[in-house]
Amino acid sequence: MKIHYGTALAAVALVAVHILMRLTQGFAESLEYENVLANYKFIPYAAMLELILILLSVHGFNGLRVILLELKQGRIYEKAVSYGCLAAMIGLIAYGSRTIIMTNMGMV
Amino acid sequence: MAQVSSISNEQTSPTSKLITLRISRFNPEHDESSGFMEFSVSYEKWTTVLEAILDVKKHHDHSVGVRYSCRQATCGSCGMIINGKPRLACFTKISELNSDVVTVEPMNNFPIIRDLAVKFEKLFDTHQKIKPYLIRDDTEIESNEKEFLQSPEEVEQYIQFANCIKCGLCNSACPTMATDSSFVGPQALAQAYRYVADSRDKGKDSRLKIIDDSHGIWRCHFAGSCSQVCPKGVDPAMGIQLLRGYMLGFRS
User: Fold this and answer.
1) In chain B, what are the domains?
2) Is there a contact between A69 and B181 if contact means CB atoms under 8 Å apart?
3) What is the pTM of this model?
């Protein structure tokens, strides 16, 4: 559960930085195709986005796991929920990372 | 199952009043669902709910199932839901309820034995699980001082939590207990804090390990219902929060 608290606090701090950086330009402008690509190609910022993705995925899926564990109990059910959430978390991180990697490799 | 019966008022004083006592009846061996039986009972200013139930047993229906012992809020046997709130029947005066109808039901989150009596096995199991005793390598007999001295400040750290009478009202009021049957519960967690905070105890690490479980201390959502219903002022919710301080390293 310490992971849950730690990821929450770290995510709040990093998302605040992310929002502040977005505020440096207009909302519509920040969503333009070239600007989004530029953000992903700027390695420090891309690393921070990757970190936010990991923190929120760990926090979110761990939270979902806890909610599901409270709904029903049982050894098989609990194992299924834990491994299912872990698999979903890894899947989401992999899918999110793919976007950043593809952009940096010039595939987009 | 509803039934209205009037108790004989031959021995009642002119100051006595009448209430309707609704008692939940359920025998898991015979009944598919619970129902209520109603009795008209006279009471005085000082009459407790337990005395009213015992009046019903004595004068009308001796088959009403209820557990009780000390009648002075010490043994923790007569916990039940009285007008929707978990309370000790011997510690609740009818006159305090300000209602002409008093409904008594068995405690929530406990399996029913019969009527108002519930099984306490799980509560005692979880209580035992957190090692509710002082853990240390030496003993008082071997110590040169013959006793482990504590300052008043050290006693203050845990004495409130030592008042627990294992009545189960906190577990009955807990919303997490209602959904998570494996949750260790506020009673056991408060007792874990009672021993962790005791300066004579050396078993903090082993106890913290026990409660740092997927159905342990982190499942508490801090609704605070346990502390609201505790008849001894133990405040399990505060104990759980203080225990979390130990878990997170804010306390040592």
Assistant:
1) 4-118 (3.10.20.30), 121-247 (1.10.1060.10)
2) no
3) 0.84
